[in-house]
Amino acid sequence: MFVALRDLRHARGRFILIGSVVALITLLVGFLGGLTQGLANANISSLTSLSLDRFVFEQPGDGQQLSFSDSTVTREQASTWSTARGVDAAEPIGIATAKATATGGSQTTAALFGVRHSLEGMAGDQTLPAGPGQVVLSQPAADKLDATTGARVHIAGASYRVAAVDGSAQYSHMPVIWMPLADWQSVASAQSAGAAPYATVLAVTLGDGADTAAIDHAAATESTGLIPALLAIDGFRSEIGSLLMMMALLFGISALVIGAFFTVWTLQRLGDIAVLKALGSTTGALVRDGLGQALIVLVVGVGLGIGITAGVGALISGAVPFVVSQLTTLVPAVAMIALGLAGAGFALRSVTRVDPLTALNGQNA
């Protein structure tokens, strides 16, 4: 590490420049990561909070994909699932969109989740409405409606009492309002001006011996795990896919930038490398010296970028959908350092091939 540390001391400007570039790229990656997780939570937190094995949808038509907005599960299909061998529970969940108005006049468009109180086994700590005429507001819904426990909320011409404010559930960027399934059916019927739908999907937990393919065939449904079900939320796939693609491009750019920097730096050091090789330094020692130099620059630059991301992210998380977590800080930091070292290692390939006499003659010429 002697040569590496000497270069860091005597060429501070160059290393400050590349360290700043690394910090900026890390800042972009960190912000995109926090925004991606924040937007994902605003889309799916109401579903990921449930402890279940599968979601059951209405069987889509030919050429169509699963979609929460197009699915309607009947009472008969729910009965087929709940009585099937190996199924521990099959709870109906109704999902609809409606405008909610508080007594004070505040309004918001909310995702209505119609559930039975027996869903509490899958809902974990989430409070559910205990009886008809009651609703439970998520905290985002309560904030937008400026409503607290005991207030009245009007939905589709009916008035409901706020039994509790609990959780931060959101669905498709809308705050969630939990309500009894029967009340949800009334709202959905009023919106469709037709027969009341039973539910949108079923939340299923499985035991031993459950043959989901056979049950799907018997009930004319299609069931899937949690992760594939999330892709059935309208717009979620394209939104998250675009952000992840940008993150991947930034990771690739970081490797190229760092690799290009150390390629030029290594070419400028060929004279020093030739002297060290002529004096007996091994190729492995020189490669370790170069990688150690790159590691120092990367750790400082990435640490600075992640530190700024965490600090600014904590300040703006209440105003924008931004999440500061290990997934949005430590994971990008490790990935940036690994990719940077890979780029630097590729740049150092000339060290393994340099011939001392040729390099010294080139320097003397």
Please compute the radius of gyration using only Cα atoms: 29 Å
| Helical content class | 40-55%
Give me the count of strands: 10
Largest sheet: 6 strands, mixed, barrel
Q: Give the percentage of residues in beta strands.
A: 15-25%
- Domains counted in the coordinates: how many? 2
User: Structural class from helices and strands?
Assistant: alpha+beta
Task: Give the SSE string.
Answer: HHEHEEHEHEEEEHEHEHHHHHHH
Strand numbers in spatial order across the main sheet: 2-3-8-4-6-5
Backbone shape: elongated
The rounded distance between the terminal residues' Cα atoms is 29 Å
Structure report:
- By secondary structure, the chain is an alpha+beta fold.
- It has two domains: 2-43 and 237-364, no CATH class; 54-224, no CATH class.
- It is 54% helix and 18% strand.
- A six-stranded mixed barrel has the order 2-3-8-4-6-5, surrounded by four helices.
- The mean pLDDT is 86.
Characteristic terms for this protein:
single chain; 365 residues; alpha+beta; 2 domains; six-stranded mixed β-barrel; 14 helices; 10 strands
What's the quick description here?
With 365 residues, this protein is of the alpha+beta class. The chain has two domains: 2-43 and 237-364, no CATH class; 54-224, no CATH class. The protein is built from 14 helices and ten strands.
